[in-house]
Each structure stands twice: as C-alpha cells, then as structure tokens.
Amino acid sequence: MPQFVCPECSFTETIADALGGETLTCPDCGHLSKPVETNVPSDTEFLERHASKVIVTTTNHIEGCLVTEYLGIESVEFVIGTGIFSEFTTQIEDFFGARSSAFEGKLQAAKNQAFKTLRLIAAQKGANAVIGIDLDYAEFSGNRIALMLNGTLVKVVRQASQAESVEILGKG
C-alpha cells in the first residue's frame, strides 16, 4: 500500500489509493514529496503475526502475568474422517501391536490446526492469551473423530518480579 513519507520530518501516513505519482504536501512541515510503495503488512499478515504470539495454557493463570480483561470463552471444533486407507493400515498395525501412525498423524494435524484457529480467533478479538484450555476427542459413527478445543480469551500484562519491585521501591 502506498505511503507518504516526508524526507524532511519523517512524517508517515498510509494512503488508501495510489495517486499516480502526484506530489503531496506534508501536513506537518509543508515539504513536497511523492508517495512511495512500502511493505505495509496486510491485515491477514498482521493477524497471523499477532496470533503466533498468543499464549495458550491449560492453567487458569500465567506465571508472572496479571489478567486485565476477560474476553469470553471460545471453542474450535474439527471433525475428521478416518478414511479407508487409514483404517486398513491401522488394522495391520494393530495386528502387530504397533502404534497407528495414520490415525496419529491425522489427530496431530487436526490438533495443530485447532490451536492455530483458536490463536487466530483470540488475536481477532484482541486477546493476547488463552487460559484454561481443554482439549477433548469424541468418536462418531461412520468412522469420524471430533476434536474440540475450548479456552478463555484474556488480555494479560507482565507483572514486575519481586526483585524488580524491591529495586524500584529502593530507588523511589
């Protein structure tokens, strides 16, 4: 997306439409300059970057953090089919007492996608953490497995450690 960046005072403003190379006047210092194309991240890129930093935990608190706002409970559900090939290989693996790698792979992929989706939902709603995560599986007829992931979206801030608090108080 084009941006106006003033070479004199560094004022920066994103411009909604490309202006065809028009010269613009800086609203801060009055200098004339042309818009330049910059690498402003898209909303999706910004959301994915924020989502990757969302903390998820099964506990109801995060050590060293204080919950400042509860944003609600969210859940993510995935239903996956086992597939005839997976069932066939699982029967063979079961016969020999081996682990079912086909099922494990599908469950792992579904779990990873569920966590990614929950993090995206949290980021969309302004949360930086999800606490009290609960992950459940259920089996349905027709060789379907459901994965349900629930958690409470929250905003947290880091608390100063006791050593930092003593140091701050000592300087006051």
UniProtKB/TrEMBL annotation:
Gene3D superfamilies: Hypothetical protein apc22750. Chain B (3.30.110.70). It holds the Pfam family YbjQ_1. SUPFAM superfamilies: YbjQ-like. Belongs to the UPF0145 family. This is Uncharacterized protein.
